[in-house]
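User: I've been trying to design a sequence by hand for this structure and keep getting stuck. Would you show me what you'd pick, starting by listing the structure so we're on the same page?

Assistant: Good idea, let's start from the same input. This is the structure you sent:
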């Protein structure tokens, strides 16, 4: 049996965890304004998680060779794709776009989600990037059904995004989730139909397209965490935790 297939009790906890995590995202979204620092956003995120009985999945998460991630939230601005570290020095400005990535644990079960937001008035191109990335996630979720494959999910995301003229990041992918924040299988945002691991009842998956306005190549900054576009083009990131229930995808990282 796959290690990310959840039993009935674990699914119940995942549904609660996801719903609470979505409330954290709503709280963060309400705080986003010109002049706020990413440190302040992270403090709101961590405080809200604690109040709701969640534990951050990110803070002190250890990646071999890199170390422990220092904060509860990943906040990535403009050309930053993922893993941006909150800072007292990083201030949101008119025209920025910011990706908010949060994960949490509840009674031993993890969920994960991300969304990209506009700060003030943004360009039409940036708005289109955000909307396309959000829609690409929905296309991937539609394919997350028992009997399909990981390749079906990635293919749906890739075709939709490339038809819209977006770059599809390949080095960073979605993943299984459940009793740990990251589990097999990997879920690329590209692929061929009918390839890769089969999707099964009870599987928990974190699907997360990352798209760019330019080329898909990436590099990591000197902080060893923050991933940016090589060509400095804008990037957006959306993610939901999905469980296959009754053969169909159930998005648990949404408020009821």
């Amino acid at each position: 049996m796959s290690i990310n297939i959840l039993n009935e009790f674990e699914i119940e906890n995942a549904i609660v965890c996801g719903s609470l995590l979505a409330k954290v995202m709503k709280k963060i979204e309400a705080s986003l304004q010109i002049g706020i620092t990413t440190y302040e956003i992270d403090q709101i995120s961590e405080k809200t998680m604690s109040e709701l009985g969640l534990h951050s999945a990110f803070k002190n998460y250890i990646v071999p060779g890199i170390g422990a991630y220092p904060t509860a939230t990943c906040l990535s601005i403009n050309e930053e794709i993922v893993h941006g570290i909150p800072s007292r020095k990083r201030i949101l400005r008119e025209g920025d776009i910011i990706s908010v990535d949060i994960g949490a644990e509840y009674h031993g079960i993890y969920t994960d989600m991300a969304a990209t937001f506009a700060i003030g008035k943004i360009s039409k191109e940036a708005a289109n990037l955000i909307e396309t990335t959000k829609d690409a996630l929905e296309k991937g979720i539609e394919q997350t059904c028992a009997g399909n494959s990981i390749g079906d999910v990635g293919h749906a995301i890739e075709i939709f995004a490339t038809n819209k003229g977006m770059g599809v990041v390949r080095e960073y992918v979605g993943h299984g989730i459940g009793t740990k924040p990251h589990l097999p299988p990997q879920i690329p945002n590209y692929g061929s139909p009918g390839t890769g691991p089969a999707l099964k009842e009870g599987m928990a998956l974190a699907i997360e397209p990352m798209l760019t306005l330019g080329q898909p190549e990436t590099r990591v900054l000197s902080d060893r965490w923050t991933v940016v576009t090589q060509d400095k083009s804008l990037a957006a990131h959306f993610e939901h935790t999905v469980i296959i229930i009754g053969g169909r995808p159930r998005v648990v990282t949404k408020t009821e």
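That's my pick for every position. To get oriented when you compare it with your attempt: Residues 8-251 form a domain with the Creatine Amidinohydrolase fold (CATH 3.90.230.10). Residues 221 and 227 are 6 Å apart (CA to CA).
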